[in-house]
Amino acid sequence: MKKMLVIGALMLLIGMGAQAQQDKSKRPSPPDSVSVTTTSGVTISINYSRPSVKGRMVGQDIAPIGKVWRTGANEATTFEVNKDVTIDGKPLKAGKYSLHTIPDERSSTIIFNNVWKKWGTEYDEKEDALRVDVATEENSDSVEQFTITVADNGRVDLMWGTYKIGFTVK
Questions:
Q1: Longest C-alpha distance within the chain, in Å?
Q2: pLDDT value of position 27
Q3: Residues 55-98: pLDDT tens digits?
Q4: pLDDT mean across residues, the chain
Q5: Buried-most residue among 69, 91, 118, 164 (CB within 10 A)?
Q6: Residues facing residue 100 across a β-bridge
Q7: Distance of alpha carbon 163 from alpha carbon 95, whole angstroms
């Protein structure tokens, strides 16, 4: 009987732990999303998690310069468009992609990867649908929590620490 009680208690604890993992709002990097229909009729939807700087150096301690970064935290950041579009003039088919970046101080690379349902640190370059090089800008104010914005004109900006990179969807 004691053995059954111990097994029951363990199963209850395991179940509670699994439930806590399901509640994404309790993660240190909370989930967020943005969805905008542009003036040209393209719907852009982005789902991501928002890590915080917490005293670390963006480009060194986190999102290191020159290395593929998951562009957020937790599961892969997803980028979805409802129509064929161009990203800074380069074609991208309608669909859902994971979004990765290779940060650099002058020019960063935005990566749209065909495999979107995965943990953020999983990445295979062979699955890239598109890579676009964009200018790295400096924010006048430091952004503590990673933020993605989308404007009506299709401008997408990624901001974290003193870095800002962006691209235009048409």
A1: 69
A2: 63
A3: 877 877 788 889 999 999 999 999 999 999 999 999 999 999 99
A4: 87
A5: 69
A6: 111
A7: 28
